[in-house]
Design a protein that fits this description.
By secondary structure, the protein is α/β, with parallel strands linked by helices. It has a single domain (about 5-300), classed as Ribokinase (UDP-N-acetylmuramoyl-L-alanine:D-glutamate ligase, 3-Layer(aba) Sandwich), CATH 3.40.1190. Helix content is about 40%, strand content about 20%. The strands form 3 sheets. A 9-stranded mixed beta sheet has the order 6-4-1-10-11-12-13-14-15, with helices on both faces. Strand 13 (about 220-225) and strand 14 form a beta hairpin.
Length: about 325
């Protein structure tokens, strides 16, 4: 069984290649869905990773199964639902930048129920990874995620929870209630600054970190975009600044890349500050190409840039 087991919805990605004018581009097929992105990112850093989800009976399901096989992501607990479909999203470009259009309602993954949880895999994983999006796509998924968290904790597995907020999927008050209930059961919580400000009503990173620590997690890894990551533990809050600077092309999936790289490195070192520095570099490198998965770097590339940054200091 894999060390990391991720629960959530994969989405087939179609990213617009811009033409001379907005709306004239072609679309390139890729892969998306935050937990799938995270799983691929962790696998590319050398971690042992698996995924639990449901796919439709379509070509997109075949594409994802082949992706996970290529990337070394264990998909032995994946359900393929006869007669159902896999979710899809499109990345386009408007006058103000990226425009995301989702076609996921009623997807195979949104039908996951608590009775379908892979209990043995959850009990054997060192860490399970759950995203708020996985809870937002349906009530049955919200219940399944909480059931998975409780089962994992009961069997000694750790829980990493990403507060990934999508207000198109649920209202803020329900999101806040469900997310904070899950955070209270997590060992590691992974908010971004923008999401955390909406969820907590707080502004300063230190205040946000203290709020989340107060709910129960041992580690808070609050991503601050170009400013790096703030790590908070019982010992206090510490900023881990970025060690490299890049000219970003596309930030789609950068947060998921950070999560996968952070978790993979933390499992190796048990040092959250080292893991944050590693995740910062991986996330930065992932913005140098288009789409969510294709630009995710592998460990050798991340370590090369970390070494270069260390020599430059």
């Amino acid at each position: 069984m894999p060390d990391i087991l991720a629960l959530g919805e994969p989405l087939m990605e179609f990213a617009e290649v811009q033409g001379d004018r907005i709306g004239e581009g072609l679309y390139l097929k890729g892969y998306g869905g935050d937990v799938s992105n995270m799983a691929v990112a962790a696998a590319r850093q050398g971690a042992s990773v698996g995924i639990f989800t449901a796919l439709g009976e379509d070509q997109f399901a075949t594409d994802f199964l082949e992706l996970w096989d290529r990337e070394g992501v264990d998909r032995s607990t994946v359900i393929v639902r006869a007669g159902e479909r896999t979710g899809v999203y499109f990345i386009g470009y408007g006058n103000e930048g990226h425009v995301f259009s989702y076609f996921r309602k009623g997807s195979a993954a949104s039908l996951v129920a608590p009775a379908e949880l892979p209990l043995a895999a959850l009990a054997k994983a060192r860490v399970i990874y759950v995203s708020a999006i996985s809870q937002a796509i349906s009530k049955s998924c919200a219940d399944a995620c909480l059931g998975a968290i409780r089962h994992a904790r009961d069997h000694g597995s750790l829980v990493c929870y990403d507060t990934n907020l999508r207000l198109k999927l649920w209202p803020l008050e329900r999101a806040r209630s469900v997310i904070h209930a899950a955070v209270a059961l997590a060992d590691i919580v992974r908010p971004s600054l923008d999401d955390a400000r909406m969820l907590t009503g707080l502004d300063a990173p230190e205040e946000i970190c203290r709020f989340y620590l107060g709910l129960g997690p041992r580690i808070v890894a609050l991503t601050l975009g170009k400013d790096g990551t703030m790590i908070a533990t019982s010992e206090g809050c510490r900023l881990v600044p970025p060690s490299i600077s890049v000219d970003a092309v596309d930030a789609t999936g950068a947060g998921d890349t950070f999560s996968g790289a952070f978790l993979a490195e933390w499992l190796r070192s048990r040092d959250p500050y080292q893991a944050a520095a590693y995740g910062n570099v991986a996330a930065a490198l992932s913005t140098l190409g288009t789409g969510a998965v294709a630009p995710i770097p592998r460990r050798v590339e991340v370590e090369k840039h970390l070494a270069q940054a260390a020599r430059a200091r």
